[in-house]
Design a protein that fits this description.
heterodimer; A: mainly alpha; ABC transporter involved in vitamin B12 uptake, BtuC; two-stranded antiparallel sheet; globular; B: alpha/beta; Rossmann fold; 6-stranded mixed β-sheet
């Protein structure tokens, strides 16, 4: 009974006593969850369309953020001196998106095309290599210091009852929601979206209706680049553009296991659950083990899921007619 | 030019002296035949005769080492799958190759892939969806609905195809090929594994496609009764070689064909 008190009842009593604090914690968790969702979304897009787990998605986000900062401050790539005109925010974002598309084309040309029909594990290994190359390239082009990124997302906070809400977080959630809706419509209702899903299902049949595999891969990696750009902007504005940005990819892993590797809604819900879960665990159960639960909580949840529901909450269960 | 030659129907595709090997294995040896506009051309032969390989050559999945392919007047050494698709060749597969996670409707919509306007369905307009992209969707959806009605599969429009029984899957696959409004339709054993009723339905669809849309059809089939009823001309392959070519009656009485099918004592 004393043990139960220690690990469960005390916390519940705490929550009931100060509900507004609890909601603030949950809200904070939801907001970091949105960020996780954004990164996980990039993984899901590529995995759905090509069956490749793209390890370099986090570095994509870092690279996009670095490029954006560079363009906004007018830094000359490689020489690291301010010798270019600083671009206005919207133009810098557009140009960065352009850079991400070029990157997608290069990845298809240099990395994926020579590896067509290879095992998925080989594709996966190649994306690990890609991550390191891109990381080095980002450093060489734009320098390795921590940079501030401000694209003009409003900051400040206001109170709802006793709960403090960050304006920035609301914007982040709004932008993420918009992105998800756009991608969902694109995948479900358009020619290209159908072609993407077709390629993921059956290469030969896709070819027979005239879907060119190569273009499709470029489209998918460009879409993942767009998601990486948005994630990079959000994380970068919140905590500065620096190397650790690329490590958010590791947090996306448990999100994917929870939500299912092939499900867009799964990435969203998974991200939110992980975000809220780790914040609540940290605040209420952290003191029991001297804190730092936040860092590993997500992975424990993922392990539990692997045991009981390996396809995730929304993942495709393989249905086969015999 | 004699009167008989003038009446000769136009040839839509011909393969000339095609040889295809996989390493040391010769799948097809020096095979030539043609397909005339508007006809139903059957390719028959015992197992391993090279029938499916032949379809794969025509549709560009396999690249023959020797020979040439004449399609719509253009002569080439080999086809490429997207060239074949863009040129109006659609096909079905021996082991149904549908997009299993997608609904019947979406599967057949992919058949419209090459008919849809590229710009209207590209990323930027698609981001807004309402407007050009939606208009394009509706336009092509209308054609797809006609195909669905024609094949009598209205009831399974929204069902993921992985859940459908085999016979219906084959029908959906035919629908996807038809949605491309092909000039030449390649059917790889469209009736394999079907019961009598399903076979009769499929025969009817094949004949109707040929009649109503004027589509030229090349089909591989094992059921001799079906072949004799459906086809205008038959080419017979055995061990990668052509052993007969002609009307069903000619082929039926050809001694080589009888030997190949029944086996011959040496």
């Amino acid at each position: 009974m004393e043990f139960l008190n220690l690990v469960l009842l005390d916390q519940i009593r705490d929550i009931l006593e100060f509900p507004s604090f609890f909601f603030e914690v949950v809200f904070g968790g939801l907001m970091s969850g949105v960020m996780y969702s954004l990164v996980a979304l990039g993984f899901v897009l590529i995995f759905k369309a090509s069956g490749v787990f793209n390890f370099s998605q986090g570095v994509f986000a870092l690279f996009a953020a670095l490029t954006l900062v560079g363009l906004m401050t007018g830094t000359m790539p490689f020489s690291l001196e301010k010798s270019l005109p600083a671009l206005p925010v919207w133009l810098a974002i557009a140009v960065t998106f352009g850079v991400m598309i070029v990157l997608a084309i290069l990845v298809e040309r240099i990395v994926l095309r020579p590896l067509v029909n290879q095992d998925q594990i080989i594709m996966f290994m190649s994306t690990i290599g890609l991550a390191f190359v891109l990381e080095g390239l980002g450093d060489t082009m734009w320098g390795s210091g921590v940079k501030a990124l401000d694209v003009g997302i409003p900051s400040g906070n206001f109170m709802v009852g006793e709960i403090q809400i960050q304006v920035f977080d609301l914007w982040a959630a709004g932008i993420a929601a918009f992105l998800v809706v756009v991608l969902a419509v694109f995948f479900q209702k358009t020619r290209t979206g159908r072609a993407l899903r077709a390629v993921a299902d059956d290469h030969q049949a896709a070819l027979s209706v005239g879907i060119p595999l190569r273009n499709i891969w470029v489209v998918v990696w460009s879409a993942a680049g767009l998601v990486a750009l948005v994630a990079g902007i959000m994380w970068g504005s919140k905590s500065g553009v620096q190397f650790s940005l690329s490590l958010i990819a590791l947090k996306a892993l448990p999100v994917l296991i929870l939500g299912g590797f092939t499900s867009v809604p799964g990435a969203i819900v998974g991200g939110l659950i992980i975000g809220v879960g780790e914040k609540v665990a940290e605040v209420y159960w952290g003191p029991l083990v001297n804190g730092a639960i936040e860092n590993w909580f997500a992975y424990v949840v993922a392990l539990v899921f692997l045991l009981f529901r390996p396809q995730g909450l929304f993942g495709d269960k393989i249905i086969e007619r015999v | 030019m004699s009167a008989a030659e003038a009446l000769e129907p136009e040839t839509i595709l011909s393969v000339e002296n095609i040889t295809l090997s996989f390493g040391a294995v010769r799948a097809i040896r020096d095979v030539s035949f043609d397909i005339r506009k508007g006809e139903i051309r059957a390719i028959i032969g015992p197992n391993g005769a090279g029938k499916t390989s032949m379809l794969n050559v025509i549709n560009g999945f396999y690249h023959p080492q020797e020979g040439r392919i004449m399609f719509r007047g253009a002569v080439r050494k080999q086809m490429k799958p997207h060239e074949a698709a863009a040129g109006g060749i659609a096909r079905t597969f021996q082991n149904v190759a549908l997009f299993r996670g997608m609904t019947t409707l979406d599967n057949i919509m992919t058949g419209r892939n090459l008919k849809m306007d590229k710009w209207r369905t590209s990323l930027i307009p698609a981001m807004f969806y309402y407007g050009p992209t939606q208009k394009e969707e509706i336009k092509h959806r209308e054609y797809v609905e006609r195909v669905i009605e024609f094949l009598e599969i209205e009831a399974i429009r929204k069902t993921p195809v992985g859940r459908l029984p085999y016979g219906l899957q084959k029908r959906v696959e035919l629908g996807r090929a038809l949605a491309a409004e092909p000039d030449l339709l390649l059917l790889d054993e469209p009736m394999a594994g079907m019961n009598l009723e399903e076979k009769e339905d499929m025969c009817r669809f094949v004949l109707d496609v040929n009649d109503e849309f004027g589509t030229t059809i090349a089909l591989i089939e094992h059921d001799m009764g079906v072949v004799m009823d459906l086809s205008d001309r038959v080419v017979v392959l055995d061990h990668g070689e052509k052993i007969a070519d002609g009307t069903p009656e000619d082929v039926k009485s050809n001694q080589n064909v009888i030997d190949a099918y029944l086996g011959v004592s040496h």
